[in-house]
Amino acid sequence: xxxxxxxxxxxxxxxxxxxxxxxxxxxxxxxxxxxxxxxxxxxxxxxxxxxxxxxxxxxxxxxxxxxxxxxxxxxxxxxxxxxxxxxxxxxxxxxxxxxxx
Amino acid sequence: xxxxxxxxxxxxxxxxxxxxxxxxxxxxxxxxxxxxxxxxxxxxxxxxxxxxxxxxxxxxxxxxxxxxxxxxxxxxxxxxxxxxxxxxxxxxxxxxxxxxxxxxxxxxxxxxxxxxxxxxxxxxxxxxxxxxxxxxxxxxxxxxxxxxxxxxxxxxxxxxxxxxxxxxxxxxxxxxxxxxxxxxxxxxxxxxxxxxxxxxxxxxxxxxxxxxxxxxxxxxxxxxxxxx
Lengths: 101, 228
Fold this sequence. Notes:
The structure holds two protein chains of two kinds.
Chain A: H1 2-25, E1 32-33, H2 34-45, H3 61-95
Chain B: H1 10-37, H2 42-57, E1 60-61, E2 66-68, H3 74-80, H4 82-100, H5 108-132, H6 137-163, H7 170-207, H8 209-213, H9 220-224
Antiparallel strand pairs in B: 1-2
Helix pairs in contact in B: 1-4, 1-5, 2-3, 2-4, 3-4, 3-5, 4-5, 5-6, 6-7
């Protein structure tokens, strides 16, 4: 399992790195979000359309990056806690082979 | 796949909200019952939600020079069944809407439909189908997560096409236009989501076999092959 997962993770990282390298060689590559590009496509399809509702609250750009990091940190924290907990649990069981649980 | 606030006409926004609401209601009921009947899997449920949380926060670059994010809802759908993910996905989307101005309240229904309903159901169906064809487990999980991700983005393209048909080529033409905005970026990103989902499932089969055995929805193959 361990060896296989290491390979899979290495593959995923290689994929991301290759994407940045290949992507940034393109003309005009700014790594713009596709969500924004899709909304721009709306404007070309229907130039008269006006969004009829606006964000109630929009974080200032600097704060927004922090909140994005917070979302990732919360997710990674909980996930990491679970993975570490399960590994530790297994190791505890191995150390006490006579413990009947 | 986030349709920005106000970018669906009121009628469309209301319709998608109405479509998504029953799924989320069933999901709330399912999650509640799951936690009451099997409190021991709470932590795994939280971890699956956390996986979606972290993976949908990361804007990943793509070879096309644009960037987008994966959805992370395939893992939970595989483990707990698709209906549970409607609630977890809604929580993720609500967080992004309210705190990050990413998505929208008026478009929440449509975004929930694509990411928290269609994606998980497709992932689950693909896993079942691939296992029925006796495909290797890791490959089935990879395929399920990847196709669930694509399905989410195709659904978004469809929702936008319905709201904004092309003046000459109609809804079909508009769908192709939106799909071609998402596809080049999302095709490779979904591969990464597939790989990461397999990593987590591998780990769970090694270390969480007891919890996996407790899950009614789980395809038998996932558990019976698990080493103890």
